[in-house]
Design a protein that fits this description.
CATH topology of one domain: TIM Barrel
Shape: globular
Radius of gyration: 17 Å
CATH superfamily of one domain: Glycosidases
Strand content: 5-15%
Pfam family, one: Glyco_hydro_cc
Protein name: Asl1-like glycosyl hydrolase catalytic domain-containing protein
GO cellular component, one term: fungal-type cell wall
Helix content: 25-40%
Strand order of the largest sheet: 3-2-1-8-7-6
Organism: Hermanssonia centrifuga
């Protein structure tokens, strides 16, 4: 990619003004040609087996809408993937573990079969709802999300690790306030890890580090940062990733993370070729 500002930079400071940030749906509409919503819950081929351990911690992952755009992340430091759905929606590289998500309160008729197949194929975790605290995403009250959790997620307790609904980093009643209310409403539920999203300027590294650290400290559980992104010039974002990736890899409370996203003109181009940020994400230590 040529130097200068890439698509994500056009979204901030609108991503986060510390009161309300842009929705994933709006990000998806600008980032790539694929509308950002959960794919249809049609059962597809079983997910690939989880990666063979190489002595390194499995942390770095990718989000995607089109499975073919994940090909160039094979054999890299990326080891898992998800697509906001219960089935992979195509063939992933065999060294990427697929992690299913219960996106929200829509058609979940294939959830049990898809999640069961994923676990049988090596998936170790299941993800809860996507940004239920945001109207443009799964848009659920804490009580409604708790009811869905008890119906669809809780039956898999002990079969896979269960990650909480993924909140935004918006201010109350979004973000942590929503999650606190959900945890109260879902008292007795099995929550093995806490999922969250964070977006801000690439130059605001301190905010990212403090927020991510605080999430691990506050909830006392492993954290999954299933979306994060930074605005600014290509160079600013390269600098951001080069600093953040070692930080995330070394922060013990962070179990996994995924940069937004393996989509057109972000980490890869329309053909799936790695762009500079994608190359950095693939290899940075």
């Amino acid at each position: 990619m040529s130097t200068g500002t890439i698509v994500v930079s056009a979204l901030l400071p609108l991503f986060l003004n510390r009161l309300r940030r842009k929705s994933t749906f709006e990000r998806g509409a600008l980032f790539c040609s694929t509308k950002f919503s959960p794919p249809s819950s049609t059962t597809t081929a079983a997910p690939p087996p989880k990666p063979t351990s190489t002595g390194t911690t499995i942390k770095r992952g990718i989000s995607y809408n089109q499975a073919q755009l994940t090909e160039n992340f094979s054999g890299s430091k990326v080891s898992w993937a998800y697509n906001w759905a219960s089935a992979p929606g195509g063939e992933l590289p065999k060294d990427l573990e697929f992690v299913p998500m219960l996106w929200g309160g829509g058609d979940n008729s294939n959830w049990v079969n898809d999640a069961t197949a994923a676990i049988a194929s090596g998936s170790t975790h299941l993800l809860g709802m996507n940004e239920p605290d945001l109207g443009a995403q799964s848009n659920l009250s804490p009580a409604a999300a708790a009811a869905l959790w008890k119906q669809f997620m809780e039956p898999f307790a002990g079969k896979a690790k269960l990650c909480s609904p993924a909140i935004t980093n918006g201010a109350a009643p979004m973000g942590e306030a929503w999650l606190d209310d959900f945890l109260s409403a879902c008292d007795g539920c099995t929550i093995d890890c806490i999922a969250f999203h964070i977006y801000d300027s690439a130059t605001n590294v301190a905010y990212f580090k403090n927020y991510i650290t605080d999430m691990g400290t506050k909830y006392g559980k492993p954290t999954w940062m299933t979306e994060f992104g930074a605005s600014g010039s290509t160079q600013d974002q390269q600098t951001f990733l080069n600093e953040m990736l070692p930080f995330l890899d070394n922060l013990t409370t962070v179990e996994r993370y995924a940069y937004f996203m393996a989509g057109q003109d972000i980490l890869v181009d329309n053909s799936g070729n790695l762009l500079p940020l994608g190359q950095t994400y693939n290899t940075a230590s």
